[in-house]
């Protein structure tokens, strides 16, 4: 039976009910009603769920906002379409979609039937050998290509690239039950004859650099499962906790597109490319409004420019929303090296001080961007300088043999860009 309403649970509390409806033109719309217990726990005006959706028992939430935010939790493109088809729901109906796939979402939200409580665990984990993991990865590829079925999929992960969530425990892989949290995300490498076949390799290397610089907690490696290459990435929104069900505690997060109310059904909307939003300044303002410093965002932007990550769009920047109401920039993820490829776009996903040409951007642009957020110039310069110096040190210390799929041209491009950005500050 297709769900027309779902309860949203967060940190052991029912926070809201999302109900499906339609506009006068027949377009799916979502209504949101706050649960009084959410106000009692976090307070009037709290943004525990989203920056876009402060808790307010007295004022109805705009359906456009609720729709855009909930839609932002869903996968994109053919992955969404095929998952919806398998579940027998409209791919544009987010409420119906999460009525099926809402047991384990990105972040800490769990969606259940109205009036029910999320189960502690389904107890239906299935151990997988390499062949079993490979089969799930191949299913993910088939879904992204418009073929295949999603009968084994247990959670919803945003994005365009085919990916799956699994549990790794004691060195073994497990397929989680529908409401069980997963520990790792696996993303299939592109075909060996693809011009971007090394994308997963440079992502693992870039995340290694980001961890050394102090901008992420993620571990990433490229693994071949029964002939299928994939990047294996640890989830930063899952934390080991022996007192939590299943030994894992979920941490809530939202991406910047959700926080800004951008509906990304058109995948181009997550890029700025001259628009007013999304923008780095708007994301920095979200951090400030929620009591967090924007300095890490400037450091992350510096890293993205130095490694040549043109894909640092609004859905690849996220915010952690902890149970105590505090907010922080999420660890860096989906960072990769692109500019060693001759065919790569030279346009950065966001404007930096009004410039988005990767070859024209300098350290001075980064400093100016930071000052536009209200940072003192000296502080802005210090963030950029320290990030570049730490990255240059990391480039000298990283074990490149641990990343054999990264071509020499990629390393040299990152070194050259890092040195050029640093020199422009002097």
TrEMBL record:
Top-level taxon of the source organism: Bacteria
Residue ranges of every copy of the HipA N-terminal subdomain domain listed in the record: 7-111
Gene3D superfamilies on file: 1.10.1070.20
Residue ranges occupied by any HipA-like C-terminal domain in the UniProt entry: 155-393
GO molecular function ontology, one term from the record: protein serine/threonine kinase activity
Short name of any one Pfam family annotated for the protein: HipA_C
Assigned keywords, A-Z: Kinase, Transferase
Signal peptide: none
Record GO cellular component, one term: cytosol
Protein EC: 2.7.11.1
Top EC class for this record: transferase
InterPro entries registered for this protein in UniProt: HipA-like_C, HipA_N1, HipA_Ser/Thr_kinase
Family per record: Belongs to the HipA Ser/Thr kinase family.
Stored PANTHER family: SERINE/THREONINE-PROTEIN KINASE TOXIN HIPA, SERINE_THREONINE-PROTEIN KINASE TOXIN HIPA
Protein name as annotated: Serine/threonine-protein kinase HipA
Annotated organism of origin: Isoptericola dokdonensis DS-3
């Amino acid at each position: 039976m297709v769900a027309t309403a779902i309860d949203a649970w967060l940190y052991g509390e029912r926070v809201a009910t999302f109900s499906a409806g339609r506009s006068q033109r027949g377009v799916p719309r979502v209504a949101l009603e706050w649960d009084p217990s959410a106000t009692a726990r976090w307070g009037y005006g709290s943004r525990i769920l989203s920056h876009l959706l402060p808790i307010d028992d007295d004022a109805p939430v705009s359906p456009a906002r609720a729709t855009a935010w909930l839609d932002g939790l869903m996968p994109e493109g053919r992955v969404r379409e095929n998952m919806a088809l398998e579940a027998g729901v409209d791919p544009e109906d987010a409420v119906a979609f999460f009525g099926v796939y809402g047991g384990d979402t990105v972040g800490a939200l769990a969606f259940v039937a109205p009036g029910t409580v999320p189960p502690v665990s389904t107890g239906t984990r299935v151990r997988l050998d390499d062949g079993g993991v490979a089969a799930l990865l191949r299913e993910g590829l088939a879904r992204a290509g418009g073929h295949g079925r999603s009968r084994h999929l247990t959670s919803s992960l945003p994005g365009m690239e085919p990916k799956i969530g699994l549990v790794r425990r004691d060195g073994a892989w497990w397929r989680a039950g529908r409401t069980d949290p997963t520990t790792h995300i696996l993303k299939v490498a592109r075909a060996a004859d693809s011009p971007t076949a090394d994308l997963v390799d440079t992502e693992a290397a870039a995340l290694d650099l980001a961890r050394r610089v102090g901008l992420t907690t993620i571990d990433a490696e490229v693994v071949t499962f029964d002939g299928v290459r994939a990047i294996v990435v640890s989830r930063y929104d899952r934390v080991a906790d022996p007192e939590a069900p299943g030994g894992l505690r979920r941490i809530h997060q939202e991406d910047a597109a959700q926080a800004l109310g951008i509906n990304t059904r058109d995948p181009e909307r997550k890029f700025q490319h001259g628009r007013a939003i999304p923008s780095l300044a708007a994301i920095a303002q979200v951090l400030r409004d929620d009591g967090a410093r924007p300095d890490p965002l400037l450091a992350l932007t510096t890293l993205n420019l130095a490694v040549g990550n043109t894909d640092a769009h609004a859905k690849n920047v996220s915010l952690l929303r902890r149970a105590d109401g505090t907010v922080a920039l999420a660890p860096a993820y989906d960072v990769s090296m692109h500019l060693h490829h001759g065919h790569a776009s030279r346009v950065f996903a966001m404007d930096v001080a009004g410039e988005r040409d990767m070859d024209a951007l300098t350290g001075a642009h980064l400093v100016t961007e930071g000052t536009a957020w209200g940072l003192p110039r000296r502080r802005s310069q210090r963030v950029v300088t320290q990030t570049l110096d730490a990255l240059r040190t990391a480039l000298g210390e990283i074990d490149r043999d641990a990343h054999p799929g990264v071509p020499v041209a990629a390393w040299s491009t990152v070194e050259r860009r890092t040195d050029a950005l640093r020199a422009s500050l002097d």
